[in-house]
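Quick one:
INPUT:
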């Protein structure tokens, strides 16, 4: 779709994409402190401290484990995960990630909290390939080889268990007895609800769940399915500007 834009009396015919790009660049140029500007992952913000961007240890860790530009694009989400994962290290229970995909996020979290020096196990679940029967959409990295690639990625981590299969059926291959931290990112409602039905009863007091898709309008079906389930356990999700949903079980 095209729009007309008038600048200094001159009419320009531009596309929506060009108009958006022009608007964002205009915001950035008008900011006195460029380092306070963030534009990525459907977030445009300015006049923020962006503390995680100046945390050299965090930035180096993300860059070390990144396999594409996507990891840098979603860095605010990753920062949220690392912050709450570190809080959860002081709680009894294991860590869990459902929808591990290529293992990038889990790798950052594991090293950020030094999982190998803790008493925790980190359970990673994914189908790792897309057959077309799944309710969620395929991602570029899905392939028959991905499972072995992710296992190889974590071969030196004794605390991390990588499990292949569709949840909740794959939970039969191994599942924690109690959970301190869970990251759920399946891009579909049925499997996420089934996951929460297993996670919530064994979530440690003070335990934390981060729902990756909860605040995204395109995945609203997940929010609508998960809210009643959380309410049954006396819980609710806080929608974050990153699109994540944050659930903390009271002590």
């Amino acid at each position: 779709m095209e729009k007309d834009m008038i600048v200094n009396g001159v009419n320009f015919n531009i596309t929506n994409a060009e108009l958006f790009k022009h608007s964002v660049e205009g915001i950035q140029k008008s900011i006195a402190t460029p380092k306070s500007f963030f534009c990525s992952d459907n977030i445009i913000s300015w006049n923020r401290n962006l503390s995680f961007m100046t945390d050299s240890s965090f930035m180096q860790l993300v860059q070390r484990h990144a396999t594409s530009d996507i990891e840098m694009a979603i860095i605010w989400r990753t920062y949220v995960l690392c912050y709450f994962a570190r809080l959860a290290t002081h709680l009894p229970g294991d860590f869990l990630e459902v929808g591990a995909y290529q293992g990038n996020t889990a790798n950052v979290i594991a090293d950020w909290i030094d999982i190998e020096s803790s008493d925790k196990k980190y359970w990673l679940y994914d189908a790792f390939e897309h057959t077309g029967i799944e309710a969620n959409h395929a991602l570029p990295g899905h392939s028959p080889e991905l499972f072995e690639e992710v296992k190889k990625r974590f071969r030196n981590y004794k605390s991390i268990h990588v499990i292949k299969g569709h949840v909740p059926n794959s939970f039969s291959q191994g599942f924690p007895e109690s959970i301190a931290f869970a990251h759920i990112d399946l891009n579909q409602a049925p499997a996420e609800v089934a996951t929460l039905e297993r996670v919530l009863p064994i979530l440690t007091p003070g335990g934390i769940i981060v729902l990756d898709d909860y605040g995204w309008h395109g995945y609203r079906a997940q929010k609508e399915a998960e809210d009643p389930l959380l309410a049954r356990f006396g819980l609710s999700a806080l929608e974050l500007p990153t699109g994540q949903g944050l659930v903390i079980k009271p002590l």
